[in-house]
Amino acid sequence: MSGAGLWTWLATREALAAKPSGRGLRSARMPGTWTLWLDHLIPADEWTPSASGLGVDRQLWAESLQDDAYAQLVQFGCQWLDRYHPQGLAGLTEDEREQLAVWMSQAPWESPQRRFFELVRDHAMKLYYLQPAARRGTLLEHPPQPMGRAIDLPVVMAPRPKDPSHV
Amino acid sequence: MFDMIVIGSGAGGGSAAWALATRGLKVLVLEAGPWFDPDKDYSLDKSDWEQHAFPVKPRSQGRYTYGVMQKLDPQWQDLRSWHRDEMSSEWPERRAVTMGYSHVRGVGGTTLHYVGEAHRMHPQSLRLASQFGVGADWPLTYDELEPYYARVEKLIGVAGAHQGPLGPQTQDPSGRWRSTAYPLPAHRLCPASQQLAKGAQALGMSWAPNPRAALSEAYDGRPPCNYCGGCGKGCPRRDKGSVDQTFIPKALATGRCEILANAQVTRLLHNRLREVTGVEYVDAKGRVQRAQARGVVLAAGAIETPRLLLANRSRWAPQGIGNEHGQVGRHFLETIYWMSVGLHPDRLDSFAGLPADSICWDHNRPDGIPGVVGGARFYSATLDADLTGPVAYATRVLKGWGASHKRAMREGVGKALAVAAIGESLPHPQSFVDLDPKAKDAHGIPLARMHSHLDDMACRRLRFMAGKSRDLLKAAGVSELIHEGGSYDSFGSSHVFGTCRMGKDPKTSVLGGDGRVHGWQNLLVCDASAFPSSGGGESPSLTIQALSLRAVERWVDGVR
Question: Domain spans of chain B?
Answer without folding.
Answer: 72-103+120-233+267-559
